[in-house]
Amino acid sequence: MYGDMGNKLVHHAKRTQNLAHLPPYQAEIVRGVTREVRDLKKDVDELLEPFGDSQPTEPHISCTVMVNHLAIRRNKRCLLAYHRTRTDKLEELVWNGSDVVDLSGQQVRDTTGTSNGGAVGGVDATTSSLSPQEEEYVRQYSDLLAAYKGQWTDIDLTGSLEPPRDLFIDVRVLKDAGEIQTEYGAITLTKNSQFYVRQGDVERLITQGYLHKLG
Amino acid sequence: MDIDDILRQVDPVRHSVPPETRDLQGLTRLWVAERSAPELLEWPQDGLIDRVNSRVKAQIEKVEEMTGDMDPKTNFALIVIQTELERYKYLVRSYLRARIAKVDKHALHYLSSQELRRRLSPTEIAYATRHQALLHNHYLSSFLSSFPEKLQNLNDTSGNVSMIDSPDPNTTVFIRLLRDLDVQGMGTDDDIKLPSQNGDIVILRWSSAKPLVDDGDAELV
């Protein structure tokens, strides 16, 4: 049925919206939908060929052409929606300071964790949940964002969007983060220790998950 | 009106608000308005953001200068300045992020006409254009390139469906009136005219509120 595969993509997109991570790219379905579009286009062209530049007069032909054309448009919308949802998600990740490499790595861990060492045949295909085009996109978007951020060096655009309450905060160290330099001297962040530090100094480490803000 | 207002009327020179405070108030207003308006508001043309930026820079330098001093008295002042600086930076950051989020959401809409383009700052225009180009390229390389040529555009308006998404002008907003006037509002059954006073807070559709805000008769809250 026309548009069925497009519908599947939209369902995937809807699901993606509510997930914390990005599910693997549905390359198979995307290919399927584009193939459908090409076939439809070919049908339309074949139907219209005998008429040249003039409009077809038989109602059944105009009707088929119309339906095919609408199906093509619908498929295009589905594809756009699917890709846009994913790029939105990717942009969010870029803003939060995650790395594409990080992201792919996380997916690898996920798949090996769940497959219990059983069937490993599919691992190669799932090493990255991004399509090559998406990886390229993320790279370019990071550059763009960095360029835009460069104009506001003092503000640190990707910083916390919570209004700052206190200059100093209590943090607990979740993972060893080594030694950091602050204006009051160096502190060594060892796991499970607790510190009272300046928020600006450790913001990065909080977003990266090394520290946990208390209170 | 409180005592400060009265004093200011008597002696406008000595009790006038310093420009720094006025800038901070201006920035706060812009920030509040930008966060509650459904569509992108105008980028301040009077160089407010530039002034804010240079002030932030100056304060950062001051902080760096004062850090070397070990005197407890300057240490306390330092904490006050740093706290204030963090808050100031938060305001600017949040303001810019709110704008970028809107630009991202309806990039083609804001780039489509000259009038709308004027609302963006030059850097925002550059960002939006580049971002849109990136997106189009991404779509092209992912699937659009195998589409018939006529259907490769992203800004098609044929077939009764415009591909350019624009913000909804009928979202509700809260506004505070800055002078007495009759507020014209759209209702579900009937349009009404509500006589209101300075300081009243009303909720109405953005399409009805926009002229009031633009004329300075009301502000968004």
Automatic annotation (TrEMBL), chain A:
Q: Where is this region: Disordered?
A: 108-132
Instruction: Answer yes or no on keyword Nucleus.
Output: yes
Domain DNA replication complex GINS protein PSF1 C-terminal span(s) in chain numbering: 166-213
Q: Which InterPro entries match?
A: GINS_A, GINS_bundle-like_dom_sf, GINS_Psf1, PSF1_C
Q: Name one cellular component (GO) term.
A: GINS complex
Keyword Nucleus carried by entry: yes
The protein's predominant localisation is nucleus
One matching Pfam family = PSF1_C
Q: Where in the cell is it found?
A: Nucleus
Q: Which GO terms describe its biological process?
A: DNA strand elongation involved in mitotic DNA replication
Using the record's annotation, list all stretches that form the GINS subunit domain. 61-152
Protein keywords? DNA replication, Nucleus
Q: Which family does it belong to?
A: Belongs to the GINS1/PSF1 family.
Subunit description: Component of the GINS complex.
Q: What does this protein do?
A: Required for correct functioning of the GINS complex, a complex that plays an essential role in the initiation of DNA replication, and progression of DNA replication forks. GINS complex seems to bind preferentially to single-stranded DNA. The GINS complex plays an essential role in the initiation of DNA replication.
Q: What is this protein called?
A: DNA replication complex GINS protein PSF1
TrEMBL record, chain B:
Sorted alphabetically, the Gene Ontology cellular component annotations on this record are: GINS complex
GINS subunit domain location is 65-141
Q: What positions does the domain DNA replication complex GINS protein SLD5 C-terminal occupy?
A: 167-221
The UniProt keywords, alphabetically, are:
DNA replication, Nucleus
**Cell location:** Nucleus
InterPro entries for this protein: GINS_A, GINS_bundle-like_dom_sf, GINS_Sld5, SLD5_C, Sld5_GINS_A
Keyword Transport belongs to the record: no
Family statement: Belongs to the GINS4/SLD5 family.
Q: Function, please?
A: The GINS complex plays an essential role in the initiation of DNA replication.
This one is known as DNA replication complex GINS protein SLD5
Q: What is the lineage of its organism?
A: Eukaryota, Fungi, Dikarya, Ascomycota, Pezizomycotina
